[in-house]
Amino acid sequence: MTASGFRGPIPLIVVGGYLGAGKTTLLNRVLANAGQRRITVLVNDFGAINIDATLIRERTDDVIALDNGCVCCSIGGRLVDALLAVSNRPDPPDFLIIEASGVSDPVRIAQIGLLDRAYRLYGIIVAVDLASITQTLLDAYVGEITRQQIAGATAILLTKTDLIDERHKAAAVAELATVARTGIMLEAENGAVPLELFFDDNVTGQLPTNWSRSMTGSNPKLPVDFCSLLFRTTAPLDRKKLKDALRSVSGQLLRAKGLILLDGEAATQELHVAGDRILITPFRGEVVTESVIILIGIFDNKTKQATLDALAAATSTQ
Asked: What is the CATH classification number for the domain harbouring 292?
């Protein structure tokens, strides 16, 4: 709920990955460290008995199970019904996390979820079993769906890295880089999850005006270049230039959000970015006098400056 009383969309996070990648273990670790955040989990298992939902209920009671099929095909209608039921609650959750079946396309699931404007996409996080990914990609039956899952991710979580040596790990990551569209690949060592993939300090949708600092990692493997950037300007932004600037850094960007002033638009606009997916809609809260955009991702000093320069060049006066 914002200061103006307007309740913003519910952040939607889709967790995907092929069978055995460790999705349920990772999700339970996230729930165990969620603090006071109220999280609803929608779980789909490919079978008549939803084992994953049973395991996740060890961490939260707010679990909705969709059994016996791929969530984005045979039970798509039930997914829509479940999403509507959650968004229509008098007191909806702070986050909705969907754990997708290992044989489903997380991008398709996200598209179904976003049909309801009560949600906004926060990320598509795909778990990859690094110890077996090379063999999985070569499999004639499941290689294509695995590639599809990896290509659609806004961030990739590398699991079971302790089962292979550094040489094989480097080779597997290099192979992933030829498939993935994102450059954000973080390691989940012994099941520890970088919570920054799921949460940031802005849980309620409020935009802090003084936030420009490195993220504090819950995982010792969190890259030193994983950080937040703050961009602000009083000059109106050009819609097309802004989208082009954001897409130019989508490989480094996990997500971004902001309140912006666009050239030719009297109303303040709300900006949400997850990977290369950009949403700009009218803001229903108080009018702002400057554009403020917060970006979270992997930025070294060079890409930090390039990102800020690209955004500065997106003003209508440039």
From this structure: 3.30.1220.10
Torsion angle (degrees, nearest 10) of CA 311, 232, 154, 50: -160
pTM equals 0.81
- Token look-up 């700009």 returns 280
Q: Which helix (H) or strand (E) holds 185?
A: strand 185-187
Both 188 and 232 in a single domain? no
155-159 and 185-187 strand pairing: parallel
Separation of CA 217 from chain center: 17
User: In angstroms, rounded to a whole number, what is the distance separating the alpha carbons of residues 256 and 278?
Assistant: 9
- Looking at the structure, do residues 112 and 163 belong to the same domain, yes or no? yes
The answer to the question of residue 204 being in a domain is no
Amino acid at 67: D
For residue 22, what are its two tokens?
A: 């460790």
Q: Residue ranges of the alpha helices (H) in the chain?
A: 23-32, 51-56, 76-87, 106-113, 133-138, 143-151, 166-177, 239-248, 301-312
- Say if residues 288 and 206 touch (Cβ distance below 8 Å): no
Q: In this predicted model, what pLDDT tens digit does every residue of 133-155 receive, in sequence order?
A: 999 999 888 899 999 999 999 99
Q: Return the pLDDT at 292.
A: 92
pLDDT in tens, 150-186: 999 999 999 888 888 899 989 999 999 999 999 899 8
